Amino acid sequence: MRRAVLLLTPIAVLALATGSAAAATKVALTPRNGHPTTKFVVRFRNPAATGTVSSLNRIETLLVSGPQQAKRCVSNASIPLPGAAQGQRMRVTLNPKRFGDRWCVGRFHGWVTLRQRFVCGPPLAMVCPQLMVAPQTLARFSFRISRTRQRPSATN
Known about the structure:
Number of strands: 9
Largest sheet: 6 strands, mixed
Structural class: mainly beta
Helix content: 10-25%
Number of helices: 2
Shape: elongated
Order of helices and strands: HEEEEEEEHEE
């Protein structure tokens, strides 16, 4: 009976931990529209502490997905975010050169996700659940990339 109690306790913690960060977080994105070489800045307040918190390892990731084109251009990006305190202001720059060269033309959608897993030390290793909580979406944003404007050619 005592063993069952030890196994159920982490599951109860899991349910409490997942509910705390489920609310959507406001994101400020500048600019909203750009060209293939535009750098975008994403700002938000961290909704919950990340890093190792109690017996959970909480990891946030910023993901971006857009149209795939035949040309060599960036259509997807993934940035792991550093550990942060609850309420801390976060700032991430999306520079296409970091992921390749240029953004593909079209609409991009972005998410800030939270993944959680249990971390157990040696005394609890035998009863530690090997579970990972399904990723949660904490924030959403989008931006549009349009073709670069052609400069008028000089005529003689």
